[in-house]
Every structure is written in structure tokens, then in C-alpha cells.
Automatic annotation (TrEMBL):
Pfam families: Peptidase_M14. Its cofactor is Zn(2+). It comes from Anopheles arabiensis. InterPro entries: Peptidase_M14 (IPR000834). This is Peptidase M14 domain-containing protein.
Length: 320
């Protein structure tokens, strides 16, 4: 596998702006990058309208399929569920940069695997975190009494609101008024279900606990039937991540290594759609809180995370 770029990297856009992977993009810049990819690489990249956020922003995805062959095993990558985890959507965009713009370096993977990448599930919260409150985690739905937002990673429908969330609309861990009450999670659910036939692996990119996690989030003792396969691949990915920059990554069940919580995206996928492989990749940490990675460290972490993703992608190409 080739060495990924960790130096300043410029990406020319249709609008005449210039994006690089050393600053955090706006939601609009991410949309412009999607437009650029599908315009310049029409035989491999297709834009997908996932849905619309509470405040009316588009939620978009890129389908990556060499020569638009539909029946390959599919990997879905979801990022940007939580607003303040800016490195998450940037990681998804960097993954797209690698597998689309440098597709010729990943022929074996792209001959055998299709991808569906959703870089920013929560554009409203992301923009609010950028412009108003850096610590903001939730979406931006109006809850009443001056409270806003749903923790989207507590709003999915598998065992919703059974453990680890809050019914307080002002809480950072507010689960919503019902499963999939947030338009963002409902849109992602619909996308997942519409693409379930070929789904081989689902990956949620979050930050920044430096972990590779598999279901279930709601329990420390409940595991999918193929837990041995999940454990082995999670270990391999963690070793790959540690081999890049020396950061320590742990791997294991999400409900064991983190506080158990229901309503996560990986629990929904593993508990209802049930593809073979479902993971959360918690990226490397930086800054004061872990998730507020300084821009000076961004390129290093994006490369690191992408190596972890490629380890999973190669496993699918070779085994599914």
C-alpha cells in the first residue's frame, strides 16, 4: 500500500476556492468537494442525496463504484454524527480523496468493493459548533424551553432509550422524542436500508477515544454471533493505526470499552440489518478535549485514520 500524503494538500474546487487538508472545511465546502469529485471522476463517483437536516441543509453521500458495477460487496462509511468531532467528517473526506482521486492506487480494492461515504450526517450541529459553541455535540432541532438538539448517536432504533441516554431535552445525551425522531438519523436509516442487500461492512467514524469498537454499544456482554471475526479484524485495524504515529489504540466491544448506551448507529445496523462487519473507529486525539484536534495535527490524523479504513477495505476485498 502506498504512503498517504501527510504534507499540505490542495484540492481545486469548481467554485474557484482551494481546499486543503490542513484546515477544517465548512459544510458548504464539503458539498463543493462532492460536486468536484463527481464532476471529475464520473466513472467512479456518484453523488447521493441522503436527506435534509432540521435547518434545511443537504445531507449528501458519495457512491464509489469502479465502472458503476452495482453488485459488489458494499462498505458504508458514516461520519459527522456529533457536531464537535470535526476530525470525523474531515476523515471521511480524506478517505474519498484517496479512493477516488487516487483510485489507480487501489485497483484491487475497487475491483472487489463498492463504497458509500456520508461525510457529514449532522451539518446543522457542525456549523453551530464552528460558529457559535465549539463544545456543541447534538443536532439543532428545537426542543422547547430554550433547549435544542438530539444526540444522534442515541436516536437510532435498536433498543432505543434503554440505557445510557437522557430524556432531558437540554442534556447533551438527549435521545429524542422517539427512535429516529431526528430527520438526520431517519435519513441515514433509509439510506442503510435501501443499500442493505450488498452491505458487507458498516463503519462509523467518531472521535477521539483511539479505539476500534464492534457492537454492541448497549451491553458489555452481548455480542454478534461472529464476534471472533469482529475481534480479529478490530485487532488488526488497531495494530495498523498504532503503526502509523505511535498512538495507542484499543479494540473490543463498544459496551465494554465505553459506558453502555443504546440507540447508536452501529447497534442499529448490527441489530437489524445484520451485515457481517460493523465497527466504530474512534480517531486519534488532540487539543484540550481530544476531539478538538489542532489544524496543525490534522494531516497526520487523517492519514492514520485512512490506513485503518483501508485495512478494513482490504479485508472485504480479500474475504467477502
Amino acid at each position: 500500500m502506498r504512503s498517504l500524503l501527510v504534507l499540505p494538500l490542495l484540492v481545486a474546487l469548481v467554485a474557484g476556492a482551494t481546499l486543503d487538508f490542513e484546515h477544517y472545511w465548512t459544510a458548504q465546502e464539503m458539498n463543493e468537494y462532492i460536486d468536484e469529485l463527481v464532476r471529475d471522476f464520473p466513472t467512479i463517483a456518484t453523488a447521493v442525496n441522503v436527506g435534509t437536516s432540521t435547518e434545511g441543509r443537504p445531507i449528501r453521500a458519495v457512491r464509489v463504484s469502479k465502472n458503476n458495477v452495482a453488485n459488489r460487496p458494499l462498505v458504508i462509511v458514516e461520519a459527522g454524527l456529533r457536531a464537535r468531532e470535526w476530525i470525523s467528517p474531515m476523515s471521511a473526506n480524506y478517505i474519498l480523496h484517496e479512493i477516488v482521486e487516487h483510485y489507480y492506487e487501489f485497483e484491487h480494492i475497487l475491483d472487489n468493493v463498492n463504497f458509500l461515504v456520508v461525510p457529514l450526517v449532522n451539518p446543522d450541529g457542525y456549523e453551530f459548533s464552528r460558529t457559535t459553541n465549539r463544545l456543541w455535540l447534538k443536532s439543532r432541532s428545537v426542543n422547547g424551553n430554550g433547549c435544542f438538539g438530539v444526540d444522534l448517536n442515541r436516536n437510532f432504533g435498536h433498543l432505543w432509550n434503554t440505557v445510557g441516554g437522557s430524556n432531558d431535552p437540554c442534556s447533551d445525551s438527549f435521545v429524542g422524542t422517539a427512535a429516529f425522531s431526528a430527520p438526520e438519523t431517519a435519513a441515514l436509516r433509509n439510506l442503510i436500508q435501501a443499500n442493505s442487500a450488498n452491505l458487507a461492512l458498516y463503519l462509523s467514524i467518531q472521535s477521539a477515544d483511539q479505539m476500534v469498537l464492534y457492537p454492541f454499544s448497549h451491553s458489555a456482554t452481548t455480542n454478534p454471533a461472529n464476534v471472533a471475526e469482529l475481534r480479529n479484524l478490530a485487532n488488526s485495524v488497531a495494530l495498523t493505526l498504532m503503526g502509523q504515529n505511535g498512538r495507542v489504540f484499543t479494540s473490543g466491544g463498544a459496551g465494554l470499552l465505553q459506558t453502555p448506551a443504546s440507540g447508536s448507529s452501529i447497534d442499529f445496523v448490527a441489530g437489524t440489518v445484520q451485515p457481517d462487519l460493523v465497527f466504530t473507529l474512534e480517531t486519534g486525539a488532540g487539543g484540550n478535549y481530544g476531539y478538538d484536534v489542532p489544524e496543525s495535527q490534522m494531516a497526520e490524523l487523517l492519514s492514520e485514520t485512512t490506513y485503518g479504513f483501508l485495512t478494513m477495505a482490504e479485508y472485504i476485498a480479500n474475504n467477502k
